[in-house]
Write a structure and sequence with these properties.
- A two-stranded antiparallel ribbon has the order 1-2.
- The chain has one domain: Orthogonal Bundle (Arc Repressor Mutant, subunit A).
- By secondary structure, the protein is mainly α.
- The radius of gyration is 18 Å and the shape is globular.
């Protein structure tokens, strides 16, 4: 093995560590402010805020979550009365936000945006654009 290799300098590790830190920070802030929702559940609310009536599979595909994980998250959101499932046929459901779900998504959005601002503090707009472009290019190369 190459002695110069360091996991801490691995691009994949750096991206993963950063994603975990951002998720953890959002989770802490949500808990501190009394929101009974996980970052992943919030992701579903945001997605449905943008486009209601998606199926479980469509949500899983966009959020890169497998069927059992999405199913558990949707069950939790339904118990919290944040979403509704409407049958489209015998085996499929369209997912919609409830009024409470829409309200929660709107309340959390400024918190999420402030957290992103904090994470990007000190970066110029062009640096953020470059960062996004580079990360998307890496993703495109391996997806």
């Amino acid at each position: 093995m190459n002695k110069k290799y360091s996991i801490e300098k691995s691009t994949g590790f750096i991206i993963y560590r950063t994603a975990l830190a951002m998720r953890g920070a959002l989770q802490r802030v949500l808990k501190e402010q009394g929101f009974d929702i996980t970052p992943e559940q919030y992701g579903i609310l945001v997605l449905l805020r943008e486009e209601e009536g998606l199926s479980q599979k469509e949500i899983g595909d966009v959020l890169f979550k497998d069927k059992p994980n999405i199913s558990r998250m949707l069950d939790a959101l339904e118990r919290k009365r944040l979403i509704l499932r409407r049958s489209t046929d015998r085996r499929s459901f369209a997912i919609f936000l409830t009024a409470e779900g829409k309200k929660l998504a709107e309340e959390v959005l400024p918190i999420k945006l402030r957290l992103e601002q904090k994470a990007l503090n000190g970066l110029l707009a062009r640096e953020i654009e470059t960062l996004e472009g580079i990360i998307n290019k890496i993703y495109g190369n391996i997806a």
